[in-house]
What does this fold into?
Amino acid sequence: MADILLEELLIGSIASNLDGLRHVAVGASSPIPGAAALLARSRSNDSMRVSILGSEDNNFFTDGGKEIFDIAGEGRMDAFFLSGAQIDGQANINLVSVGDYRRPKARFSGSFGSGYLYYVVPRVILFRLEHTRRTLVDKVDFVSAPGFSDENVYRPGGPYKLITDRCLFEVDKTRRCFRLQSVHPGHTVNEIYEQTGFTFDMPDGDVPNTPVPDATTLATIRGPVAEEISEIYPAFAARVFGVGRAA
Amino acid sequence: MADILLEELLIGSIASNLDGLRHVAVGASSPIPGAAALLARSRSNDSMRVSILGSEDNNFFTDGGKEIFDIAGEGRMDAFFLSGAQIDGQANINLVSVGDYRRPKARFSGSFGSGYLYYVVPRVILFRLEHTRRTLVDKVDFVSAPGFSDENVYRPGGPYKLITDRCLFEVDKTRRCFRLQSVHPGHTVNEIYEQTGFTFDMPDGDVPNTPVPDATTLATIRGPVAEEISEIYPAFAARVFGVGRAA
Amino acid sequence: MLATRLSVDELATHIPDGAKVALPPDYSYCSLATTRALIKRRAKELHLIGVPAMGFQADMLIGAGCVATVETAAVTLSEYGLAPRFTAAVRQASIRMMDATCPAIHAALQASEKGIPFIPLRGLIGSDILRERADWKVGENPFAEDDPIVYLPALRPDVTLMHAPLADKFGNIWIGVRRELMLMAHASAETIATVEDIVEGNLMDDEKTKAGTIPGLYVTAIAEAKRGAWPIGIPGGYEADHSHLLRYVKMAQTEEGFHQYLEEFVFETAAVAAE
Amino acid sequence: MLATRLSVDELATHIPDGAKVALPPDYSYCSLATTRALIKRRAKELHLIGVPAMGFQADMLIGAGCVATVETAAVTLSEYGLAPRFTAAVRQASIRMMDATCPAIHAALQASEKGIPFIPLRGLIGSDILRERADWKVGENPFAEDDPIVYLPALRPDVTLMHAPLADKFGNIWIGVRRELMLMAHASAETIATVEDIVEGNLMDDEKTKAGTIPGLYVTAIAEAKRGAWPIGIPGGYEADHSHLLRYVKMAQTEEGFHQYLEEFVFETAAVAAE
It folds into this structure.
């Protein structure tokens, strides 16, 4: 994949997890998930809606900040993206702090909508570009939202995939853990073991490479998707695709 | 009160129960309470708001049908008007039916907001132009909203006065009943006894006559108030005051 | 995403027999055009939800035998008096009544809008409204001592039916300050609408228009219907047809008169011309 | 009823020490002009409520020692990174944190708006957000078996502070599609606002404008403040002052640098000129 960028690989890979959905929502500070959603929409034959927080063109809400959560609570949102300062092997995510909550070593912004959306959106894709033992840990220091819940807890949603700069994990809901699904070109299974702080399952047989986008997909990403995403993330679009105004 | 109409007497009498309030709301089909609220506002030195259901000029809500109830629930509404097909001596009101609820002899529109507003609006003024044993009964056939509640029930609001075409009752919250406050000019205490289906308390000493509006008040009613109310109730304004377009 | 655009008769098929249908009151945006289509196809067993009250639309559907259940704070024809077919049906116990109070309907719809299973509401305790509603419960306020409060289950209509002044080709519907229609659309599984006009462009592009627009996300299908609220009016559009409504009320006092009204103004194609 | 019109400094007196203040996030309508007035009068012990998150405004108030409690789903400077004075204060445990998740804040404000004492919400169970919130409870859904759900008490701010593009002399405030500000105004005991312009006429007279307007009923006082959101922007108005914000973030990395920023841009009257 000499001439395919990591960003393009990720956009293509995420988009293939969105095809066929009716409504994909993307939170703040998420250029790659945003581009992936726009790519999926472009091949949906006008049957997918994409809402992107912070976008003027892709924001069709008219009932204030609560509407996106109401929509999710009602089952009108099929996929969403979450990240974590820490993510652990039970798919718990931490967006709050490292160390003691009351006197932390590090403090991050906060949990945003994760304490709700992770429970109700059927297909939550975890996205973390720093794949190290610092970020993918055995146990998070603060649970902004748990990966799994007790049987009696209302939980129509939850984790679906975890994608990093090194690989793609799928979620095993029965065993409540991650399973390595594919390794990005240029990376190895050994490296994944070394850099991951939690244990994870292996697939049967060989671990495949994450598929690279085909020529049509690549053209779509570099053309219309790059153009659309530049409305919201001009610096990203300029850096990765060389399009749009720089921020 | 040869030259003062019953409507004008009622408007003046109701308005004197609204002076000093911040927000008076008036429901549908209530021209006399509406005019009374407008009269009270006209002498409030711009410190009273009046909202009238069905008015364009006096409707400042922008959050749909629920807002008026939310406002009341939050304590932002000081007075409201309710009526009843039946009203009984415990100030219970019935807007639903006469006879068995499941197979009634008569059915009316329904309870509207009474099952809520009667509980939360501090000063609910009951208004019924037909003062007979048919309407003012010993016990209502259906309680759309009770006059009083048990001690542990949240009840910041409730009945304040009952005004009819014959007299004005005040509410005794301790004894949970009505007390005759004044009799409209031309009517007698005996007549009130004969025409009222519930027992009520009498004031100490003589029963006064309901005060008639003074000249200034009358001029306000017949001038600006008549003009304003004709926006919402053109037929009423034309019939009573001879102003505005007829419906 | 482009809206699904249908004829009024096709639109009415989105209200199948037995559906829970949310309807606005007469002074809001009512689709009488679709009401007639429902009567024409002899819809059955509808569960009407007045948000929070209903008028002519409900009276016609009840009189025509389309309705099994009426859940509302009131059915009223306002200055035209009591609703004659509604009143007759209640007296004959031919419909099931679920009497409510206005804010209970709004609150229960808000619960549905939020995807929460219930919502508490003040008031109601000690009323016969509550006594007759087996689906409502009294519970405790968990944040206080001895503070009973009513718990309302979320109210999720199968479909909201409205008639709006404007829509665009994306299915966005402008309702201005009539935000109870926004709540109804959010709370219902589907929303269908007849509209006076389907405009060029996107109602979301102008922030002033956008502020009063139901997003197409909630809208299953729309149909253009000029004067689709007739014989009642729509705010900011046209006035009610006063003489027609008087005629309705007069005819609807008896079952025979009502059916004669239906023959003349619903079943006859002449009805279209009358509009 | 005419609105009470004040200077920005007078407006800030409606946020007394110890007040619960609801604030919007940076991308909405924030009154940085009033923020500076609060810092100048050395406000103390404020309880900030982010609806649902906060940014520069909170970071400045926290750094200036005005804040005792922060109740929010996040404090973020978005592309400018973590909020430095917020982060330092949490690490030093000099503020009390009440971490939340966005929809819990919206829902708890809706409870206040409706005058209900609590509202249920899905999610949260099993999270440390819930574990740390002694004021939230887990209870049963009374309409189901073994279905635990979180009960949130109504959240009633003493005052909402915002900066809006337009108001009129009646205190009506236009906020367009930013309806979280409408919710905040409804839910709070008082609302105060700086505005870019106070227009002639009544915003309620045009139904399109009315649909995006907070009624003056909820508004205690307004103050005109041109560019009152500076150095952040307001949607549809002006952009954020990018170089100034970068400068803030750089200076605010240390307590000394932050206080130098305050001297230069808040306490100095030169600040006014800089706007």
User: Anything to note?
Assistant: The mean pLDDT of chain A is 95. The first helix of chain A runs from residue 6 to 15. The CA atoms of residues 28 and 53 of chain A lie 5 Å apart. The first strand of chain A starts at residue 23 and ends at 26.
